[in-house]
Amino acid sequence: MILGSGYKGSSKLESTNSENFEIVPPDSQGSKKLTQFYKFQFRNDQDCSVSINHGEPIFIRAGDGFSMDHIDAPIFSFVIKEKGIQYNFAGAHT
Q1: Is the pLDDT of residue 30 over 80?
Q2: Tens of pLDDT along 40-62?
Q3: Considering the entire predicted model, what is its pTM?
Q4: Helices H, strands E: what count in the chain?
């Protein structure tokens, strides 16, 4: 059984340029609908807080990152709360 249709992620080390920075990209060019990931990995170079799927902020220590896979709730929003956080991510989407 195939769950997904592709992969999306950072093409280089990225940095948030504002507070409350959404890193989940649009589903397609020009779309307002965000991608839904069934597998996802996030790596951060500084301490930060994130809000997943509009939930309460979660603290992630520098270098610890976050990951989930197909048995967890899909991710449709991943917001980094602080400005100036260096990160990269990769995910498999439906």
Answers
A1: no
A2: 999 999 999 999 999 999 999 99
A3: 0.92
A4: 0, 9
Q: Are 60 and 3 in contact (CB under 8 A)?
A: no
Q: Residue with structure tokens 């170079």?
A: 45
For residues 65 and 32, is the Cβ–Cβ distance under 8 A?
no
CB 24 within 8 A of CB 75: yes
Classified as helix, coil or strand, 48 is: strand
Coil, strand, or helix at residue 2? coil
Name the residue among 6, 2, 5, 21 with its Cα closest to residue 87.
Answer: 21
Phi, psi of 17 (to 5 degrees): -105, 5
- Measured distance CA(90)–CA(65) in Å, rounded: 12
